[in-house]
Amino acid sequence: MAKRGAKLKAWPGLQNCRVPVVVTCLVVILVFLILLFCNNGKSPDSSFGYPIKKWNSFESVQFNPTTELRNGTDVIWQIPSLPKAVLFVAHGCDGRAANFWDRSSSCPNCIGLPEERLLVLHALARKFAVITISSAGRCWTFGEERLIVKNIIQWWAQTHNLESLPLVALGASSGGYFVSALATNLRFSSITLMIAAGKFDQMDITVNYPPTLFVHMPKDSYRQQKISEFIEVLKNKGIDAAEVECMEFPLSPSFLADRIPGMNQTVSAKLFELFQVKSFVDGNGYMKKDGRATRWKEALRERKNLVLDKSMVQHVQEELNLAFAYHEMTSLQSEQIFKWFESHLN
Ligand SMILES: *[C@@H]1O[C@H](CO)[C@@H](O)[C@H](O)[C@H]1NC(C)=O
Ligand SMILES: *[C@@H]1O[C@H](CO)[C@@H](O)[C@H](O)[C@H]1NC(C)=O
């Protein structure tokens, strides 16, 4: 709500307007408000309808993960005091376990991407033990890798006396397809498939298949169509299935600083200004294209007085993709995701 207040304050003062201008101003404000509320009414799950959490919103939770090598891959995990469930998280293509955790003395090679880290912080704050594993290759594979990951999760749960707790999983993109398949090898209480439709056209689904939440970006209409299809398939088999739609939202001068640890307001505002000058965003601050298709890094190189720390390029890229809402990891829907997990713990 604070964000929206700030936005409204930025409207030009009316006292300088002549009468026709006053009328125009009022009409513009009215249209803006109507659009705002229509948008909220049509899609109550949209990111834009929810307050956007800041990177440091979880002061009560601290990253203190353990990193180890198992079966040739890295496993990074953290167990809060009195855990109530276990969450396995699977990254997308080109991702890895290190993306989910901030760099610290306990994980010097960790990256802490903005959405991944907030997802883990949400989980830890809600007393989920979190285990992340890197895929062997660029993306997940669906043969032996399923057995390896199943064994790693079981071995780890056993080692830390977590076997009796409910086990849930969240996978994004390639990780979502992987989790949908892993759910036939390992018993999950429920799963969340993010920006992924799942492998439901290639598996035999039984009534024991876990309740499945699809968190997706409808702008990706091909996936949206598959997901609608698969929700019907699951429901027809008596399996609980639901979806959360993630919509695009506008950038603001403070957005990047709000989401990325170590980025200050000055750099954030200058980047936003650059995006405006280069027309990467429209007049309302919405990304015109996916972040990956936007030549913002090239534009930045031309700006001698604006230097972005190299370690933050990936972080900015992720937030731009998120705002465009076509295909990206998202933590904005964490409330709905963890409600789903919590309402299906057994
Ligand atoms: C994974 O590693 C463990 C311990 O080193 C080993 O016992 C197990 O056979 C390995 N699993 C696979 C599928 O390679
Ligand atoms: C913001 O960060 C930039 C780059 O890291 C730095 O040069 C600048 O001094 C910082 N500004 C403030 C106000 O902290």
Describe the model.
The protein is of the alpha/beta class. The chain has 2 domains: 66-247 and 333-343, Alpha/Beta hydrolase fold, catalytic domain (Rossmann fold, 3-Layer(aba) Sandwich), CATH 3.40.50.1820; 255-324, no CATH class. It has 11 helices and 8 strands. It has helices at 2-9, 19-42, 114-125, 144-159, 174-182, 221-236, 255-259, 265-277, 296-301, 313-324, 334-342, and strands spanning 66-70, 73-78, 85-90, 128-133, 167-172, 190-194, 212-216, 241-245. An 8-stranded mixed β-sheet has the order 1-2-4-3-5-6-7-8, with helices on both faces. Helix 5 (174-182) links the parallel strand 5 and strand 6. It is globular. The protein starts with a helix and ends with a helix. Residues 71, 147-148, 151 line the site of one 2-acetamido-2-deoxy-beta-D-glucopyranose. One 2-acetamido-2-deoxy-beta-D-glucopyranose (NAG) binds at residues 71, 147-148, 151. This is Secretion-regulating guanine nucleotide exchange factor. InterPro entries: AB_hydrolase_fold. The chain crosses the membrane at residues 21-37. Keywords: Membrane, Transmembrane, Transmembrane helix.
Structural class determined from secondary elements: alpha/beta
Supply the CATH superfamily name of the largest domain. Alpha/Beta hydrolase fold, catalytic domain
CATH architecture of the largest domain: 3-Layer(aba) Sandwich
- Termini separation comes to 35 Å
Largest sheet: 8 strands, mixed
How many domains? The number is 2
